[in-house]
């Protein structure tokens, strides 16, 4: 499917703004303002990048653990439907600040740097990438889908195709923030539709923040029902606190 006109416009705007930032700050870290060698990677120095990333995570659920492991105790007893979750870190400053700038501040150019942080975590490249869809009314009100912007950048960085329009959000669900896990599950039940077979393919779903995983689980179920070999989850922040 052809790339939406809006995504192309965001690319152009992002590139123009990054050039302006480069000329204004002369290659300074966006957080600490110390000089950095190049803006081709991210807008942060290596120290600040390390500050935003979680040191030890469970590779299955993405939640922090004492030492990195393929599966934590909870995943061994109650594994999620997806195969692996890749994330940058927890939903806390300064990382959460940049999510907020992208999602609520309409700073579309933040998607590129955030995606570059996430791309370094991915060890098993998928056959294609897709993203959590918004209901058409919410997308019309917001003007964009932050998960789509992140997915578009990740697809370019990982050199894999992106699946536009793979899912449709059928219900204008309530915001998940502030809901219990059971309420979240009920809220997104039968909220999505998938439009084609993904037989035998390894698919990655992109979202900005994953909390309980109920939204992602609904999409993973649909992909597995339509023949996906495995499904991974890519997100900027993974948290067990209701912040998304």
From TrEMBL:
Q: Domain of life here? A: Bacteria
UniProt cross-references to SUPFAM superfamilies, sorted A to Z: PRTase-like
Question: One Pfam family this chain carries?
Answer: Pribosyltran
Q: Which CDD domains match?
A: PRTases_typeI
Q: What family name appears in the similarity comment? A: Belongs to the ComF/GntX family.
Q: Where is the Phosphoribosyltransferase domain?
A: 147-238
Question: What is this protein identified as?
Answer: Phosphoribosyltransferase domain-containing protein
Q: Return the Gene3D superfamilies for the record.
A: 3.40.50.2020
């Amino acid at each position: 499917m052809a790339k939406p006109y809006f995504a192309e416009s965001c690319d152009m705007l992002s590139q123009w703004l990054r050039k302006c930032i480069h000329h204004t700050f002369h290659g300074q870290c966006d957080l600490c303002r110390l000089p950095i060698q190049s803006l081709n990677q991210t807008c942060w120095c290596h120290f600040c990048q390390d500050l935003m990333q979680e040191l030890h995570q469970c590779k299955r659920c993405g939640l922090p653990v004492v030492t990195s492991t393929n599966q934590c105790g909870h995943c061994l007893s109650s594994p999620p439907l997806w195969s692996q979750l890749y994330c940058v870190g927890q939903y806390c400053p300064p990382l959460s600040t940049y999510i907020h700038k992208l999602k609520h501040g309409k700073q579309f150019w933040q998607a590129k740097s955030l995606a570059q942080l996430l791309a370094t975590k991915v060890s098993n490249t998928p056959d294609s990438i897709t993203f959590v869809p918004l209901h058409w009314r919410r997308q019309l009100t917001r003007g964009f889908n932050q998960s789509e912007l992140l997915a578009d950048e990740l697809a370019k960085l990982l050199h894999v195709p992106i699946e536009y329009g793979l899912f449709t959000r059928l219900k204008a669900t309530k915001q998940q923030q502030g809901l219990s896990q059971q309420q979240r599950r009920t809220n997104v039940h039968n909220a999505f539709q998938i439009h084609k077979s993904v037989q035998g393919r390894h698919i990655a779903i992109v979202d900005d923040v994953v909390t309980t995983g109920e939204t992602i689980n609904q999409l993973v179920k649909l992909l597995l029902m339509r023949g996906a070999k495995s499904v991974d989850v890519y997100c900027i922040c993974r948290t067990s606190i209701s912040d998304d």
